[in-house]
Amino acid sequence: MRRPAALVLAFTVVAVACTSGGLDDSADTTATTAATTTEAPTTTAPSTTSEAEPTTTEAAAPEVSAELSGVGDELFPLLGNSGYDVAAYEIDLDLTGDELMATTVVSLTATQDLDRFHLDLVGMTVDGVAIDGEAVTFDRDERELIITPNAPLTEGDAVAVTVSYRGTPEPVADDAGPFALGWQTREWGTFVASEPSGAASWFPGNDHPTDKATFRISVTVPEGVAAVAPGLLEGIEERGDGAVTYRWVSDRQMATYLASVATGPFTITDDAGPDGVVIRHAVVTARADDLLADLDSTVPILEWMVDRFGAYPFESYGVVTVPDDLAFALENQTLSLFGADFIDFGDDFADQIEAHELAHHWFGNLVSPARWQDIWLNEGWATWAEYAWAADQGFADWDELAAEAPFFGDMGPLLEVTPTTLFDAKVYIRGGLGIEALRRTVGDEAFDAVIDTWLTRFADSAATTDDFLAVVDEITGDEGGSVMRAWIFDDEMPAFPAEG
């Protein structure tokens, strides 16, 4: 059967198409935890639909300091902040009332002397900020939470910044896609889709992939509602007042846009995977059997990836399937987000989407883009992995993909992207074809050495296209370097080479 058109559909909808808001009316609002198993009595999901209170400030907001606001990302100049490095986030969310009640502790180290510094936070009402337990002055200016320590921080000072806040998280309007990003509230519960700028909708932080940190996320929900987040489930505490707290911990480095939470009518599974990796899925309880059956390829796909890219870099992996027809999937770290529609398209389609999202855990999650302009390093590699996996299964053909690529829109230079074209088809298709062209030119041995060097050298950090080209030059010399530069920079997409 001819498959490239379906595969291209997978590339172009991943993380970019608008949410539909459609609900699965048959979904049971009972949440259970399977395999480990914890059962919870039936209740409805918490109400999170009240209007957010207006943001207030404690004093007249000062002029936003250009040297502290943003990290210099050309496409998204307001993302992230300068002057410090975050080591860890501890996020405590309470969804049992009419509005979200939250506390986030940001453990950070000053990288320069600071008489004030910024965190990214959109909306919400901030009730207080403390540094090492002492209340401090704060101000708000759009997405900037501006914090003034009681005494200036000196370069090297490590402090814990506690932010107490409340309200109804509202998604962030963003030119990168036709839907608002970040915290999403539905009748059945909540989920998070943040790439690239939505993390600030639900917790204060340094919202740029160049500053990664560990995460501990606690979510308190009514009995009968499950809560899932990145990493490993540390424990479930029944509070005795009709509420349950789920505690999740991820000790591996994570960019803010990859952090996530989902609450609702989920069954959570916990199974052993290869090399000690925990395979954890969260699926709609009413459809648990068929959804889990559709996800039975997770381990074989993971094993294929490990064989190509080396050890899986995180504590766990799994998929959360929400009741909505989302028309997109997203590589939230250790917990890829799927709409029910992607599963319902059929086994091959669901498997290839999972291959794409799983590949991102090496390309995008382990090694992240240092600038959003370098997004092709995420999507091109994930597309290459998805298509290489599909070719190994016998239903994909690289040459057909190359022939059909121009029919899917602009295939111009990979770095010529704007906030509105960040996830255009060329980023996926030309990027993936360029990587396959590199493999065909230099051979598998050199190609595998490029992969190993790239992932080892920049693990748990962020890198640029120039960093990638330096690795290609180092391993393959002019032969690979010239090919890769043509695929990245030439005005026209180069001719796709035949298999050697």
Summarize this structure briefly.
The protein has 500 residues and is of the alpha+beta class. Helix content is 26%, strand content 26%.
User: Uncertain runs with pLDDT below 50, 5 residues or more?
Assistant: 1-62
CATH class of the largest domain reads Mainly Beta
Name the CATH superfamily classification of the largest domain: tricorn interacting facor f3 domain
Instruction: Fill in the CATH topology of the largest domain.
Output: Immunoglobulin-like
CATH architecture of the largest domain: Sandwich
Q: How would you describe the shape?
A: globular
Using only C-alpha atoms, the radius of gyration works out to 22 Å
What value does the average pLDDT take?
Answer: 87
| Main β sheet profile | 8 strands, mixed
Number of domains: 2
What layout of secondary structure does this protein have?
Elements: H1 4-13, E1 32-33, E2 38-39, E3 84-94, E4 100-110, E5 117-120, E6 125-131, E7 134-135, E8 137-141, E9 144-148, E10 158-167, E11 182-185, E12 190-193, E13 213-222, E14 226-228, E15 232-238, E16 243-254, E17 262-264, E18 266-268, E19 271-272, E20 278-279, E21 282-284, H2 288-294, H3 298-309, E22 316-317, E23 319-322, E24 329-330, E25 336-339, H4 340-344, H5 347-359, E26 367-369, H6 376-392, H7 398-404, H8 425-442, H9 444-457, E27 461-463, H10 465-489
Parallel strand pairs: 1-18, 3-13, 20-22, 23-25, 26-27
Antiparallel strand pairs: 1-2, 3-4, 4-10, 5-9, 6-7, 6-10, 8-9, 11-12, 13-16, 14-17, 15-16, 18-21, 19-20, 24-25
What does this structure look like?
With 500 residues, the chain is of the alpha+beta class. The chain has two domains: 4-359, Immunoglobulin-like (Sandwich), CATH 2.60.40.1730; 367-489, Neutral Protease, domain 2 (Orthogonal Bundle). Helix content is 26%, strand content 26%. It is built from ten helices and 27 strands. The protein has helices at 4-13, 288-294, 298-309, 340-344, 347-359, 376-392, 398-404, 425-442, 444-457, 465-489, and strands at residues 32-33, 38-39, 84-94, 100-110, 117-120, 125-131, 134-135, 137-141, 144-148, 158-167, 182-185, 190-193, 213-222, 226-228, 232-238, 243-254, 262-264, 266-268, 271-272, 278-279, 282-284, 316-317, 319-322, 329-330, 336-339, 367-369, 461-463. An eight-stranded mixed β-sheet has the order 7-6-10-4-3-13-16-15, with no helix packed on it. The protein has a four-stranded mixed β-sheet with strand order 2-1-18-21, with helices on one face. Strand 15 and strand 16 form a beta hairpin. Helix 5 crosses helix 6 (376-392), helix 6 crosses helix 8 (425-442) and helix 8 packs across helix 10 (465-489).
